[in-house]
Amino acid sequence: MSQPEYIAALLSIIVGLGLTDLAQRVRPRRTVNWHWLPLLWAATAFLLAVQFWWNSFSFLKGATSEFFLPYLVAFLLLYLTCAFALPDPGWEPPGSATGGGFSIESLGTRAPLDLRAFHFSTAHRRWFFGVFIAFILTSQISSQIASLFAERSVDPQEIPGNLVLVALLGTLVWTGRKWAHAVISVLCFLGIGWATLATILGWTQFGELLGL
User: Deepest in the core among 73, 81, 103, 183, taking most CB within 10 A?
Assistant: First the structure.
């Protein structure tokens, strides 16, 4: 195998682990009070993983050690984004009897897992959207480095689109207002979903316009 093939295999494994973790959390071994916002972000994380994995192969064909590390960090952050989208089966809100932690032995006796409380909890907003922002910034840096080493022109439209996305995600870290989360979550899902379709189906001009 060539060096790019080794790199592609490693990064594909990381994406696969992230998607597996995401799928396992959809069906926790516990009664759940469902809420649409965490599920929407789980779907967004899934689309983002597929899109980033698909886009990466065009760069990895000529992969060199110079931009392997930035790409590896970006993929690890993508994995964490998938992992933080939905709660652990034993998650409890802060202030509960377990103090926000969990015990495997008591899973069967607990109150239902509240996805709404999970989504709006300060810890989740900081970790999930914070890691999401770190992924966007790192992937932007990785793509720019890859473009330079591959002697491709750097697309100036990517940066403004990603900065807008970072600003939207930063708003969700800062505020717990329901209307802000509802509006921004839907916009991000539609934007990333459309960009994913544009990338996979070859509508590259529109995908590049979104900066994704």
Answer: 81
